[in-house]
Amino acid sequence: MNVRRVVPNFQSDAAEASREFYGLLGFEEVMNQGWIVTFAPPSAPAAQISVMTADKTGPVTPDVSVEVDDVDAAYAAVRESGAEIVHPLQDEEWGVRRFFARDPNGRVINVLGHL
């Protein structure tokens, strides 16, 4: 299994202020779903930061998103390890398959793959 990108997720209602702030650092808006906005610099599009009011379908806002090339294999490995599954594996209407798991530090990790 390969990791494609890792994105910190900040829970906030300040998307516009975040757009302005991260713009000062060379970031541009690359995705806006209304409840989540993602910023990335044009020179390094996989270096991303997301700001979300709350997760649309999950029970909590994840701390980090990790995109992998095989989300089903990741889900099987995490379940087999005994780690807590916070949100079950499912396909989302915005084109990802994902689940949430809690890491040993108590952080909620959104593990996803694009459909």
From TrEMBL:
PROSITE patterns, per the entry: VOC
Question: What domain of life is recorded for the organism?
Answer: Bacteria
Per the UniProt record, one Pfam family is Glyoxalase
Signal peptide (residue range): none
Protein name, per record? Glyoxalase
* Residue ranges constituting the VOC domain according to the UniProt record: 1-114
**SUPFAM superfamilies attached here?**
Glyoxalase/Bleomycin resistance protein/Dihydroxybiphenyl dioxygenase
The species this protein was found in:
Streptomyces triticagri
